[in-house]
Every structure is written in C-alpha cells, then in structure tokens.
Amino acid sequence: MLACPKIDDVKQGKKMYKICMKCPEIQQFQEMSPLFKQIYFDLLAENGKKQNSDQYFGPVMQAAIRNFQETIDKNKFLNEWGMIGKNTLDYLSKQPDLPQKQPTQQTSQPQTAPKYELTQDKIVTNQTKF
After folding, report:
1. Structural domains of the chain, count
2. Is 2 domain-assigned?
3. What's the CA gap between 49 and 104, in Å, rounded?
4. How confident is the model over 102-120, as pLDDT tens digits?
C-alpha cells in the first residue's frame, strides 16, 4: 500500500490520492458528494460488492472517480485522471444533492453502466452500454 498524503498537500496541489491507498480520508471522499456516492455504489453493485464506504482506493473507486470526472468535464482533470487531486477534491466538496434513484430490476440483457449528466439545476441518469 502507498502512504497517505496529508489532506492539506492535496488541497494545495502538491500530492494526490491514488489507487492502492488505504486512508481514512478515502471513506470521507466516498461520502462527500451525493453524485459521486451514487456512481461509486452503482459500480460496487455491478461488481457484486457490498454497497458501503471504506478506506480503500481500489479499482472500483478509481473507475468511479473517472466516471465522476468525465461527468463534470474530463478536460478539467487531465493531470489527475482517476486520482483525487486538488480539482477533483474541489468538485467532490461542492456537488449538489441528488434525487433518490429508483431501484433497478435484474435482467439477462448485457450489463449497462449508469451515465450521469450534470445540468444547471439537476442530475440526469441515462443508461449506456459499455
């Protein structure tokens, strides 16, 4: 496991949280933004994992960060793609609340991944195949 950076170093753009880290702050990030939490929990469910926050920055967390960054604007995160750096942390801390998501039914069709679109006043969920 990699050593955890200090949160102040991340806020100042000196360091980033990345895959293979286990830090108490990771659990806070997983809960910080309703949009990110929904993306993260959806990916956990799709991968057959329990939907809860933990302190581990693993592959599912990295995929959720990338999905979150792409939802906002991938170009704003080129230097920290798939990691939590200054820009990602700023966006995680200022995301709006989400409406409750309706439960989905399991089907035998190919898996789909949720695609989230941020508009000025709401967040829209579309289903896209990958």
Report:
1. 1
2. no
3. 16
4. 445 555 555 444 455 544 4
Q: Would you say residue 104 lies in a domain?
A: no
Whether residue 31 lies inside any domain: the answer is yes
Sorted by sequence, the CB contacts under 8 Å of residue 94 that are 6+ apart come out as none
CA 127 to chain centre: 17
Tell me which amino acid residue 41 is. Answer: F
Contacts of 120 (CB under 8 A, 6+ apart): none
pTM for the predicted model, two decimal places: 0.71
Instruction: Assess if residue 106 is contained within a domain.
Output: no
What is the phi/psi pair of residue 122, to 5°?
-155, 170
Token pair of 31 as six digits: 């809960």
Residue numbers of the domain that contains 68: 7-99+111-129
Other Cβ atoms closer than 10 A to 44: 19
pLDDT at 99 exceeding the cut of 60: no
